[in-house]
Model the fold of this input.
Amino acid sequence: MRKRTEARQLALQMLYQLDTCGGDLMDEIVPFLKRNTKNNDTISYAKELIFGTWEKRTHIDKLIGEVAKNWQINRMAIVDRNVLMIGTYELLFKSDIPPAVAINEAIDIAKKFSTKSSGQFVNGILDNIRIRNENTAKGVEPLSGLEKGQTSVQECNQPTQ
Done:
């Protein structure tokens, strides 16, 4: 397994624990990582994902909630929500990770740790976050070109009835 893939999976496991038990487990992060991998690069990237995602979780949750039409973030499966948080963190704050890589890794992790349909769910939300982020970087209104109620560019290409 690649180092960053392993780091993402470890980050998901730790964020799941933090999400269910609260921030009381912060002192357990490094021991958890050291028990589960000996690779220092993996530990370093997992720590960055865990601490970065946890620190920015309010901003990330808000963005996911805005993009996930008809889904309240607190009603999402915990695994799916944390996969989305890691993917969103990488899309927004890790310029060295190509967006397609961040999204594909999140899809694969969702399929592995959640359900097969979770991959589609994660893909749809992260792709919309990618589009919004790219539009914002270009100075374009977020999700510009979408008619009211549409959540993706694909829907724009569908004829209206």
